Amino acid sequence: QLAAERQKMEEEVRRLVREGETRRTAQAKVAFQSKPHQPGDLVGQSGIERSLEYDLAGRRGYVAREVDSRGRVILEREALAPEPGLSVRLTLDSRLQALAMSLLDNRAGAIIIMDPRNFEVLALASNPTFRLSDFTGNLSLTRWRALAEDRFKPLLNRAIGGRYPPGSTFKMVVALAALAEGVITPETEFNCRGSLQLGDSVFNCHNHAGHGRVDLNKALMQSCDVYFYEAGRRLGIDRLAQIARNYFGLGRKSGLELPGEIEGVMPDVEWKRRTTGRKWMPGETLPAAIGQGAVSTTPLQVAQFTAMLANGGRLYRPHLVKELLDVEGRLVRKIEPELVSRLDLTPSFFQAVRKGLESAVAEQGGTGRLAALPGRRVAGKTGTTQVVSNRVFQSFSRGQVPYRLRDHAWFAGYAPAEAPEVVVTVLLEHTGGGGAFAAPVARQILAAYFDHSIVSLKLPRPQVQPDLEMEGGLAPNLEWDLRD
């Protein structure tokens, strides 16, 4: 790192010399501007400390003096006073962050709390994690190997670096895309008989008995797969992917000020040709339309498109940095919301989708009813994503599904439904149904958001040890009626 930094500085010095500067003056200018590091300096290794290293680092001063043979100062030629680095004020709410970590407890997953009005991140929790003290001073090789080789990946920030099928939370995107392209209206109905046949393939709904005649509101409330199979088939994968990328931020990094973020995958015909050399088949569009198949996202991306729906179509760059301050506490730079895209859609279409999400929480039969909060109107969408085929999953008896084969649980929602001010996204790995497991966690977070007296009852725990504790701490996959 030091060698690369010095090479870059030398290239800049040479450029200034070519433009007429003396080498001494050019070196002084470059050193002042670039804040070069020296051996032994402490630098940010990860997180905000790494991405804002230049702002957080101070600037060294120097004095150039002419002395005689006895070391006495004859002339002070030039001097530069040292400058302290800036301070960073984050958007994080420490109370909500601690609560989110404590709710994850001994479960693998991520929780994101965000303000949909400006995409300020109020909490960004990932579990299991590690002790920061492990990286202060000398880290033993034994400890490093334990962290790096742990199958629960404590070094992975799941909120931005975890790759997951979004499951039925993706139906928010499909609904808005289908409305935008005119392939459905809020009143469009499809008949769900429990499955849909396309060619020789049969695509099941999570309700094998079928939902009957379903419009958009009921499809979102009860998470009818057949409805979204039909909507996705009419859209086609290319139109769906284009809208999902251009307006919802899928398949690309959000730009959050943290290293380690991944893009996820929003597939289309060209993507499959480029990655596999094969043609996209019509049957691949149907699982993609319910957030399965080749579609993959990070929890942050799910929080993004939920916030976009909540605020009426505006996608901002999510951010953790609120402002930068000098050593005296004076404001140096304030981070303003950065608009990335805007989906201009008939307001009634947004309202129709939001109504369906509110019904999912408030109405009997809604998949997200365990997220309901007395006295508040909550809207949200559950999701349950498979990690193995139905044939493999159903080969185990009830309650005996191995941990690694259990579904991931999602809930993505916001409140108050009539004027959203907070978005909550919960992902729990290998836990079971989103309605049964993720929705109650979201309810606890929303309760704490509106009631500041609610605090974490215990400190968040670092990496879960031993690994068996994580498997043993999870409830078995019993909530078959709430799998979505």
Structure description:
By secondary structure, this protein is of the alpha+beta class. The protein is built from 18 helices and 16 strands. It has helices spanning 2-18, 23-34, 47-51, 53-56, 94-104, 141-149, 158-161, 171-180, 216-222, 225-235, 237-248, 269-276, 282-288, 299-311, 347-362, 390-393, 434-450, 467-472; strands at 62-67, 73-80, 87-90, 109-114, 121-127, 190-192, 195-198, 201-204, 212-214, 314-316, 321-325, 331-334, 339-342, 379-385, 408-415, 422-428. A five-stranded antiparallel sheet has the order 5-4-16-15-14, sandwiched between helices. It has a three-stranded antiparallel sheet with strand order 3-11-12, with no helix packed on it. Strands 1-2 form a two-stranded antiparallel sheet. Helix 5 (94-104) runs antiparallel to helix 17 (434-450) and helix 10 (225-235) packs across helix 13 (282-288). The longest helix is centred in the N-terminal third of the chain and has 17 residues, at 2-18. It is elongated, with a radius of gyration of 26 Å. The protein starts with a helix and ends in a 12-residue tail after the last helix.
> Rough shape?
elongated
> What fraction of the residues are assigned to beta strands by DSSP?
15-25%
Strand order of the largest sheet: 5-4-16-15-14
Question: Could you list the spans in which at least 5 consecutive residues all have pLDDT below 50?
Answer: 464-483
Extended strand count: 16
Query: Approximately how much helix is present in the residues?
Result: 25-40%
Mean pLDDT across the residues is 88
Describe the largest sheet.
Answer: 5 strands, antiparallel
Determine the N-to-C terminus distance: 48 Å
| Structure annotation, total helices | 18
Structural class, by secondary structure, is alpha+beta
